[in-house]
Amino acid sequence: MTRDKAPKAPKAPKPVLAPTPIENIVAAIGSVYSLFIHTIVFVFFFAIAALGFIAWELMLLVLTTIVSLEAIYLALFIQITVNRHTASLKEVEEDIEEISEDLEELGEDVEDIQEDIEEISEDIDEIQEDVEELNEDDDEEATLSTPKAEKKKATQEETLEQLTRDVGRVLRDLEALKKSK
To answer: Is the pTM of this model over 0.85?
Structure first.
């Protein structure tokens, strides 16, 4: 009935990572608001070219350059976000492994408790057999009814009651421990 494993101290929860400015930019660019702004910018560029304020070739050159630079930066921002989420997933994977180990240890503890309960049940059976033997002896001694026999009987009854209370307490403690795990 000995336990050689010390209980683990509960770990503090890991802080939730706040979005970085890059993640905020990626989220903003992927929003309906961003779609609306991009549409207005494209319409503006085509309108000033159609109205003759700038040449079509110049407008397409500037617009293509801006869109290319935006795509390059957006790809970089997305890759940074992916890298951060990958690191976060690795932490979750480690947490899952720790939880699995804890579950295995709990299973072993439950098995140990079940073995302890079986041992206690065997002890109870032995005590009951001893009680029956004592009762048989008491029946034989009752016919004699000597003060010494009565004193012995009272002592045995007290011992039996104490053992019964102790076994009951141990069983309740084991059941409570089993439920808490």
So the answer is: no
Both structure tokens of 9 = 């101290």
Tokens of 45: 């560029």
What does the DSSP 8-state code read for residue 143? T
Sign of CA dihedral 47, 53, 57, 62: negative
Task: Tally Cβ neighbours within 10 Å of residue 34.
Answer: 13
Secondary element (H or E) of residue 54: none
Say which residue the tokens 């070219």 belong to: 49
Q: Which of 74, 81, 93, 87 is nearest to 19 (CA)?
A: 81
Q: What DSSP character marks residue 52?
A: T
pLDDT (tens digit per residue) in 165-177? 888 888 888 887 7
